[in-house]
Amino acid sequence: MNQLNKEMMQDLRSFTSEFITQLRISTPVDTGYARSRYTNVYGNKMLGTGGTIPLVKNDAPYAAVLDGRSDRGFISSQAPKGIVEPAFKRTRKK
Asked: 32: which strand partners?
């Protein structure tokens, strides 16, 4: 079981790394700030301990607007299909 957990954690680390790459590719660039603010928050949390495991964070204040998830209804004309969902789909295909 320990070996299986190690392999799953390695797979999750690989997925998270590729997901961040895809997020950066999908993020529109004006100044490059939002693209540079993706960080891996997964760390090495153990799988199977319950709860959700956050993978990625972007602390740019307008990241939600770029992704089309603003609570004010704003949608980015630079990324009308969003950022997270397309990046996630591309990562899953790899």
From this structure: none
Type of residue found at 59: D
State the Cα–Cα distance between residues 37 and 35, nearest whole angstrom. Answer: 6
Tens digits of residue pLDDT in 32-45 = 999 999 998 876 66
Over the stretch 15-74, which tens digit does the pLDDT of each residue have? 999 999 999 999 988 889 999 999 988 766 666 666 677 789 999 998 888 887 666 666
DSSP-assigned letters across all residues of the chain? -HHHHHHHHHHHHHHHHHHHHHHHHHS--SSSHHHHTEEE--TTPPTTSSS----EEE--TTHHHHTT--TT----SSSTT-SHHHHHHHHHH-
Q: Measuring CA to CA, how many Å separate 87 from each of 17, 43, 59?
A: 12, 20, 18
